[in-house]
Amino acid sequence: MATTKAQATPRRWGALFFIGLAQLMIVLDATVVNIALPSVQRDLGISDGDRQWIITSYMLAFGSLLLLGGRIADYTGRKRTFLIALLGFAGASALGGAAGNFELLLIARALQGVFGALLGPSALSLLTVTFPEPKERAKAFGIWGAISAAGGAVGLLAGGALTQYLDWRWCLYINIPIALLSAIGGQAMLTESRREGKSRFDIPGVLLVTSGLVAIVYATSRAESDGWGSANVIGLLAAGAALLAAFGFVESRVAEPLLPPRVVASRTRGGAYLAVGLAVIGMFGAFLFMTFYLQIVKGFSPVKTGVGFLPMVTSVLLSAGGLTTRLLPKVAPRALIVPGMLISCVGMLWMLRVEADTSYAGGVLVAQLLIGFGAGLILPVALNYSTHGVDDGDSGVASASINTAQQIGGSLGTALLNTIAASATADYLASHGPSPATARQAVVEGFATASAWGAAIILVGAVIVAILMNTPRPDQDAEETDSAEDGKRAEPSFAHP
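Structure for MFS transporter, as requested:
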């Protein structure tokens, strides 16, 4: 089948603004609602046992449907999928903001996850095809990586301000103007691209991977309350692993797989997926621990907590926008990702020095600057190379793969580190006895123990990426290298209506 290579669109930098705005909305939504949870619970009369579903319903839909969302974008048109997803996300946000009861809010959050699973892969694949020239692509992915890394902290600031000065419902309503502006701009600036020719959806693959990811994401959400050793959690994890193994078997034998094995078999792309999956364990853990430390131990208000995260945002922007974009076209990817993971690891270890009476400047601030700087080295590079050398027709599902790695890594990491922190806190209280001072120090001990585990996971990831990701510098013949490692393959053509 003939191939038509993607050409640089004349309005590509304007398109980047609107694609980035959509990505910011997705990342914001991962944290902006979290900080409003106490207010939501009081207003709607939600029990302690049910409140987790406000987060879990979104995570289940979003994490389990990403691969399907990427394939829909490839087959039906990335611009079309992007615009439909934006309008659907806005509608779901409006429904959630107006919800008068827990059940309606739950439906709205699940719908947000469904449309988010369409939006994330289509946005990233649009970025890939909009910037085919390596140097410009490096700048574009630097901006994209900064948005992805800093958006969570911005979400905490926005969530705190909206909840404290307006109402928790605005944590959902805020998505509406963002989505509509991005849709209007996207309609004007973006060029359609899709896989040409007739394509059939891999229904067995869809069912297997969706149910497998649902089982794993749900297991991690239950682990925080039931414990990792509970029968339910172990059974769900085992079922999820079995379903994903069956998915891998099916994908190697069907004519048009949902996730072609060649997409993940590449050492370059596999290293990128692994880097993101392991790095977000530490970053998600850091957000969780620092938020609770600042509010519970230091007594910060929600807004002050959000402001306290601004140095991390600045560090990410300086690293991703000022350094990574300059180096990305000139050095091998692991020359940036591995140092970034090591710097983030040191940031996690810095949390071991934090005590209940440690000043903000001497404790959390240093950890934020290190973790943020490391994230700015990791994410733009990993996102750029997540579609490196892939068939044009597979860019949507390749984009979905790194989104899935991020989602699963974040879900597993948050649940695992939170469980470790809770266990360490309980052990400290049991050995030192209950008192106000002991309670504050017990929280700190829990966070320190979990941070050490997070640092160890990131360090192991750095070692694996250093060995696995052997991609040469971009100025070498990278295309030939990837052709050799992926094997000969047919490339589908591109349609640009």
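The chain has two domains: 12-191+258-486, 202-257.
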